[in-house]
Amino acid sequence: MLVKYTIGVDYGSLSGRAVLVEVDSGKEVATAVKEYTHGVMDEFLPDGTTKLEDDWALQHPNDYLEVLEITIPKVLRESGVSANDVIGLGIDFTACTVLPIKKDGTPLCMTDEWSGHPHSYVKLWKHHAAQDEANRLNEIAEKRGEEFLKRYGRKISSEWMIPKVWQILNEAPEIYEAADQVVEATDWVISQLTGSISRNSCTAGYKAIWHKQEGYPSNEFFKALDPRLENVVEEKLSNDIFAIGSKAGELTEKAAELIGLNQGTAIAVANVDAHVSIPAVGITEPGKLLMIMGTSTCHILLGEEEKIVPGMCGVVEDGVLPGYMGYEAGQSCVGDHFEWFIENCVPASYYEEAKEKDLNIHVLLTEKASKLQVGESGLLALDWWNGNRSTLVDADLTGVLIGSTLLTKPEEIYRALIEATAYGTRIIVEAFQDNGVPVDEVYACGGIAEKNALMMQIYADVLDMEIKISASSQTPALGSAMFGAVAAGSDRGGFDNITEAAKVMGGVKEETYKPIAQNAKVYEQLYAEYEELYDYFGRGENDVMKTLKNIKRTASNLK
């Protein structure tokens, strides 16, 4: 029997990776990674002179094309698989990551006229400079009694589409005017493969306030935000939304030459990295929460009814799998948390020790932290170094570390930061459960879940629940590959729906993390203190974090 293959491309915050997968087994045959040439631009534009303000995070769209151009030929070359045997391709992306484009699909930042303007570039998901617009949007929506707010935990995030579009309009009306469309980066990449824009229902639903039955908010609402936004959907977005799991089109001749696949290869409608991971671990029913753990963590859960859960990122019908409500929550700072710590707070002696033992600095700190008993450090932290996504939806919140002394060691702080992220996840789990959305099982995927046993054991102990780990180390890419096989359809050797694909290609490892009773007991006490701090700093009783940010902003402007 002739083996068929599908390709999934996962676009992360710092790099993109392609995975070549056997359709009939889910076996990952080859993987290739390409780091973005421009990385994350949070200080300067590519010219090296145009300075960016605080809370900006930009990317260059050409980096995304380079990923395709380099990784896809590489997986074919290394595997020896012929392009003739590749039936489909799917991609996933960080979200909400958006860019303004011309009618022909050219990004404004790739034109001579606008290459020096910050607002012409891709705004990465963690671009938080639209917080003022988000605050104003939430205030007006609340005052008007807009029903859509309930579906998003009563707060629209600064990370999402409408605040980012409004920021462009407010700060660079010339860019807004020059843009024929503002699109998700994931949809833009698909358009470069198929020749046309196919806006996916996942980002539209979770990040652009679109509803399957009701569409976008009314023009009257957008007019209330700003008269210039009254027709923003018709002028800059689109009412044509394509369901995930469907086919966006086929590979054009031009794109085929670029990436080394055959013209006519089926291309799936784009998806979000977190959401596409659900079928990749074999989840096809409600009650199973998946944590996609990386620089940030996204929590995805299927439900049978549309429930209102305060502080969630959204509930979207068919947003993850057809026939179910897809719930999303998240934490803005997880892997970024630990990276910040090792870059800024670890002494040289630890790096020397790591070098002597031939260990990565994270591995050394994890080894040292694993020798500590639960509660031994005397530390407690809030995981808000990059704001809080769920359940407070507030990018202006910042980190807290309490209990430190002159005897506090780096590994103690490192462990406290890990524990803080686990407490943050428990807040989310309890929010779902308290509002009628069951969480019966917990799954995890991503680099952290794959590599850090201490962290996963801490999560199991804090949640007091067993945690199952994805069988794939490239879960989002595998999920995208599965959607590529669905786009191809059974006639070409793929599948007719994602549920069928999940049963054949998805799965988890045999080994799981089970809670340790004594640890869970101590974490119960620590979590109670975390909750106190969470409410005190996060729900308005003490606004010191925002006061400090305002003072910082004023001081920076005086330079």
Tell me the layout of helices and strands.
Blueprint: E1 5-11, E2 15-22, E3 28-35, E4 58-59, H1 61-79, E5 86-93, E6 98-101, E7 122-123, H2 131-144, H3 161-171, H4 173-178, E8 181-184, H5 185-194, E9 199-200, H6 201-207, H7 219-225, H8 232-236, E10 241-242, E11 247-250, H9 253-259, E12 266-268, E13 271-272, H10 277-280, E14 288-293, E15 297-303, E16 314-317, E17 325-331, H11 335-344, H12 348-356, H13 361-370, E18 380-382, E19 400-402, H14 410-434, E20 441-445, H15 447-451, H16 453-463, E21 467-470, H17 475-488, H18 498-505, E22 508-513, H19 517-538, H20 544-557
Parallel strand pairs: 1-5, 5-12, 5-13, 9-10, 14-20, 20-21
Antiparallel strand pairs: 1-2, 2-3, 4-7, 6-8, 11-12, 14-15, 15-17, 16-17, 18-19, 21-22
Task: Write up what this structure looks like.
The structure is a single chain. With 559 residues, the protein is an alpha/beta fold. Helices cover 39% and strands 18% of the residues. The protein is built from 20 helices and 22 strands. Strands 1, 2, 3, 5, 11, 12 and 13 form a 7-stranded mixed sheet that branches. A 7-stranded mixed sheet has the order 16-17-15-14-20-21-22, sandwiched between helices. The protein is globular, with a radius of gyration of 23 Å.
Distance between the termini: 69 Å
Instruction: Profile the largest sheet.
Output: 7 strands, mixed
* pLDDT < 50 runs, ≥5 residues: none
Number of strands: 22
- Structure class: alpha/beta
Mean pLDDT: 96
Number of helices: 20
- Characterize the overall form: globular
Task: Tell me the strand percentage band.
Answer: 15-25%
Which value, in Å, is the CA radius of gyration? 23 Å
